[in-house]
Amino acid sequence: MSQKRQLAAIMFTDIEGYTALMQNDEKDAVHIRFKHREIFNSVTEKYGGEIIQYYGDGTLSIFSSSVEAIKCGIEMQRAFQKEPSIPVRIGVHVGDIIRTESDIIGDAVNVASRIESLAAAGSILISGEVNDQLRNQNDINSKFISNFEFKNVDQIMPVFAIANQGIVVPKKDELSGKTKEKESQSFKAYKRKSVLVTLGIVAILVALFYYYQSFNSSHNGDVALNRSIAVLPFSNMSNDTDSENFTDGVTEDILLQLSKIKELQVISRASIMQFKESNLSISDIAKELGVSYVLEGSVRKYGDKVRINAQLIDAQNNNYLWAENYDKTLTEIFEIQSQVSNEIARALKITLSENEILSLNKLPTESSEAYNYYKEAQMFLNRGGGKVEELEKAKDLFEKAIDIDPSFCRAYVGLSDTYLEYIYWGREAPKEILEKALTPALKALELSPAEGGSYGALGSISYYRFEKETAVSYLEKAIEINPNYVGAYDKLAWIRLFEGNLKEAVRLFNKVLELDPLSTKNIANIAFSHYYFHEYDKGIKVLNDALKRFPEDNMLLFMKGNLLTGANKYEEAIKVFNQRTVGINTNWMLAYAYAKSGQTEKAKKILNYLLEKHETTYVPPYMIATIYMGLGDKENTLTWLEKDYNTGGLGLFFWGLKRDVKFNPIKDEPRFVALLNKIK
Q1: pLDDT > 60? residue 556
Q2: Where do transmembrane segments lie in this chain (predicted)?
Q3: What is the CA radius of gyration of the chain?
């Protein structure tokens, strides 16, 4: 039998309640089916579709374009609603199929069938992949419904509904189809012979946490211990300096694994790296980070072998609760017999959840070479300064890791996160870079639906696209999988702030500080959130406290200058902006402060520099609009804000236009109001 593989948009349809209709009125049922096929045949042909088969009251067809498939579905549903109306359900997905002489097969066909099974009469449900291909179609509207786990489909699928006039948009609680039961059957059959060496450590840590806290609870009445931990940077005991990245990688892997356990609050990497090679005592570090437990250790590479040593310490009394050494060859760095963690867990009577066990025992990659590229890429990404050359290196290294192991989920997440950093720092036009970020994020989700980073990246992409409901859904799923996901809490906090839910925004920002108390990037963002409350003094106080520890931090100084402008303290803002060690000649907020203080020539000097730079490289139009606003040029302000929206919008600044006091002079301008209506 000949076979051919191709990419196609797959459409399933069926008539709701057709079997019952046949039983009650066979003549009427036959008439309805005849009308259904007549409409289906003519409209499918009009949009270049190919009917693969009829089955009873249902159909299977394919299209070369998702856009054509959806336009076909819309026209069909409108025709089906004319009397006598036909209650048709439609589901569409796009993916690889294998053509045989009489049929099509493949996972994508299965997914399309599952999506159609959810649909309500008069609706068209589509997958996230189809929705992504409709983004530039102004005549097609869609609405996010929810994420679903379908039977015989490994990944969690975001499902959208077409929302054009005349098309039914069902509510989530109205849908029922071929979804999975809550309890995963795959867990019962799940057996692995090896796990990451760090996972062995994690399993032991979890056991000891539960055991130690259970012991103390029985001896201390109702005293509840804080289940919080900091994984300090492991010491590099090797002779070669190249082992430093490898050692940091061990630290980060343990931290990542621990962060998946819901019972633990795990301090994030940005804060714990402040204590790399620190001389502070364990109790002092724990106090500064607000944790009860500290994990420290060392890594030594010798020849083709590695030794990892780790110790868990109760920071309240400096007692060592547990210590262990692990000796493996470099090629076996990911592997250790699961028997170790299983026996310890059994001895200490620990029961982890099904999802936690599956997640903790999953190998990220079986290629040490791919892993090394991945860790080096993370090193450049985690520097967090937004330098283009560092982001380029991170991107190239993540891509090398993917080339070596195309199933390395975390490498795809890292690549997507790297692209998102270009947006955060204003290095590339968001609309273009988001398309680049989306592909690896979707691939990561396909490879591992249980990886929180996949949802975090997709949530950030939706956030930057001003797709609030979709962003919230993805970000909440990321936190459900990884309850210590700082970036997801941060994005959710900004969304709640901009929709006016200040109480929830404060709660989420406080959670960010709990998990990452020493990250200057997060401290700066949280302080700046007060700008939108018009609580400038509160934000400045947060920054002044942080500047005592980090007096030369450019991000802290930048946000302090912003808050001072909100308080109309322009001269003071100018002094703060000029304390920064980078970007004086490109500092758009410095130019704004100059303009508002009457120093228009200095403001125009920066403006002209940015306008010239804009001719040859990307400069966020929002920055230029802000300077024009300071100069009182409303026309150019509106023109450049519109340009900014057309390039994708500059992250949180654009989200906050409605609450930004800088733009009060144009708040009633029709062009400004129209712009705000686009980003609700």
Answers
A1: yes
A2: 194-212
A3: 28
Contacts of 59 (CB under 8 A, 6+ apart): 11, 12, 13, 14, 40, 51, 53
Distance CA 161, CA 144 (A): 6
Q: pLDDT value at position 328?
A: 59
For residue 320, list its beta bridge partners. Answer: 313
Q: What is the pLDDT of residues 590-605, one digit of tens each?
A: 999 999 999 999 999 9
Rounded to whole angstroms, the Cα distance separating 644 from 423 reads 12
Any idea which architecture 194-363 has in CATH? Answer: 3-Layer(aba) Sandwich (3.40)
Q: DSSP letter string over 61-106?
A: EEES-HHHHHHHHHHHHHHHTSSSP--EEEEEEEEEEEE-SS-EES
Is pLDDT above 90 for 143? no
Beta bridge partners of 55: 58
Considering Cα of 134, then 140, then 141, then 146, what sign does the dihedral take?
Answer: negative
Peptide bond into 665 cis (omega under 30): no
CA distance 359 to 586: 45
Q: How far from chain centre, in Å, is Cα 441?
A: 8
DSSP letter at 194?
Answer: E
Mean pLDDT, to the nearest integer, of 133-142? Answer: 83
Token output for 119: 């649909």
DSSP per-residue letters across 30-67: HHHHHHHHHHHHHHHHHTT-EEEEEETTEEEEEES-HH
Structural contact between residues 648 and 432, judged by C-beta atoms closer than 8 angstroms: yes
Residue 320 near residue 310 (C-beta atoms within 8 A): no
Q: Comparing 413 with 231, which gets the higher pLDDT?
A: 413
DSSP letter for each residue of 383-448: T-S--HHHHHHHHHHHHHHHHH-TT-HHHHHHHHHHHHHHHHTT-S-HHHHHHHHHHHHHHHHHH-
Q: How many CB atoms lie within 10 A of CB 42?
A: 12
Query: What CATH code would you report for 4-180?
Result: 3.30.70.1230
pLDDT digit string, tens, across residues 424-440 = 888 888 888 888 999 99
55 or 342, which is more confident: 55
pLDDT of residue 571: 96
Residue 166, Ramachandran bin (φ over 0: left; ψ between -120 and 50: alpha; else beta): left
The rounded distance, in Å, linking the Cα atoms of 60 and 559 is 56
Q: Are 640 and 628 in contact (CB under 8 A)?
A: yes
Taking only the tens place, the pLDDT of each residue in 361-398 is 667 788 878 988 998 898 888 876 778 899 999 999 99
Q: For the chain, what are the domain ranges?
A: 4-180, 194-363, 583-680
Degrees to nearest 5, angle at CA 307 with 305 and 310: 160
